[in-house]
Amino acid sequence: MSELNVISSNGVVRLQFNRPSVLNALSPDLLNAIIDTCTNVGKDDSIRVVLLEGSGKHFSAGADLPAFHKDLISNPQATADLGRRATEAIAALPQIAVAAIRGHCVGGALVLAAACDVRIAADDSRYFIPELDAGIPLAWGGMAHMVRLVGESLAADLVLTCRRFDADDAIRSGFVSQVVAADKFDDAVTELTRTIASKPGLALRISKQQLIAIRNGNFDARNDAGALLSSLQDAEARQASDDYIASRLS
Fold it and tell me: What CATH number did the domain enclosing 156 receive?
């Protein structure tokens, strides 16, 4: 059984962590599958949205420490770096990446979600970063992502205390953009991804390039004029513009 289900439909690819018996804990094999899949997905211009989710009731309980300890013996450096590579593979996707978080979202799983562009959460979602309690620092680039999303003071608090927080805390802090009742969550995720995927492909890719540039500290607004002109020359974007104008005039 594959540890990562890949399901594609109507411009949306769902990457589903498929280890429900261990709350979708992230094994080295699963992280390798994420890296390989993101590499392949990134080359497919027909895909507009990549959705990360967990099978069953939970997003993920974080790193599978027993599995990692075994691999660390034989290949320590490469194994220790797998989480960073998976996180960066998600962050670098040219498509819009969405994390759909329900149930537990712990440690490394929280870092993977933070690497996405949009995070939507069920009201039963629960979070914490237990690395320091487990005797290790937060790795995988997680500190940088947390500071970017919630600010340095709160990021330091959450990492250093290892305290738990819930969906209400997550939306107040800006870690997620929406919280939805658990019984309506699947429909909300489908609607969100469908809405994003319906936008013109070139405009979506330019928007993602802008987000990546901002995160990397090399965004230059002088490039926006060229991006705008490129969109105006794109047939799909022109049709969207015509439809938008017609709807405003009707």
Answer: 3.90.226.10
